Amino acid sequence: MNLMEINISAFRAINDLGKQFAFLDPVFFFFAEYTVYLLALAVVIYWFTRKNENRIMIISAALSLLIAEILAKLAGFVHANNQPFAELSAVHQLVDKAIDNSFPSDHTILFFTFCLTFWLFGKKHRLIWMILAVCVALSRIGVGVHYPADVLVGAIFGTLSALLSYAIVPKAPLIQRLLALYERIELAVLPRKDKERSL
Q: Which InterPro entries does the record match to this protein (predicted)?
């Protein structure tokens, strides 16, 4: 069995779960489509705690996402495949999506860069964030828009870029200076309250 056959076989095993267990359909759909809003909300909340560590964490995550997306674009020149629903028959497709290159998975990259960064910075409930990243990755297979290889490579890129960014950003004097400048401007526009709750 070659790699493509393994990829398709693994896809069928996960995607067919929705056919066998109907209760999984809304679960896959929720993780695939709506958890991005939860992540966005978390980013906003972390940023506006006004804690330096949280802001460095968000900057680190954003930089890791940029690095991972650059890697993804380069990988797209080396290998490309359309979504499973466009290439295979009888795919259990739960979301509408334009047909294009699905390698690697952008959703998986997004969640692994941010959730692993939350883990690295030791945030509360960090295990839950990593479980969320894995669930999102699996859900993209479950709804029929990505192969396992798409999400696996996305997870690898997200992990590597998060580790690299974590090693660079907290120690970068330029980042600290730019953040201090931003905070001075922010303080002029939005003065701090006496006691602000932190995460």
A: PAP2/HPO, PAP2/HPO_sf, UPP_Pase
At 138-172, the pLDDT tens digits run 999 999 999 999 999 999 999 999 999 999 999 99
- State the angle between helix axes of 173-189 and 52-78 in degrees (0 to 180), rounded to the nearest 10: 120
What pLDDT is recorded for position 1?
A: 76
Contact, 159 vs 109, CB < 8 A?
no
Task: Please state, in angstroms and as integers, the Cα–Cα distance from residue 148 to each residue in 1, 47, 144, 154, 182, following that order.
Answer: 16, 33, 10, 10, 41
**DSSP-assigned letters across all residues of 109-135:** HHHHHHHHHHHHTT-TTHHHHHHHHHH
**CA angle, corner 119, sides to 60 and 31, nearest 5?**
95
- Distance separating alpha carbons of residues 180 and 2, to the nearest angstrom: 53
Q: Is the dihedral of CA 35, 40, 44, 47 positive or negative?
A: positive
Stated pTM of the model: 0.91
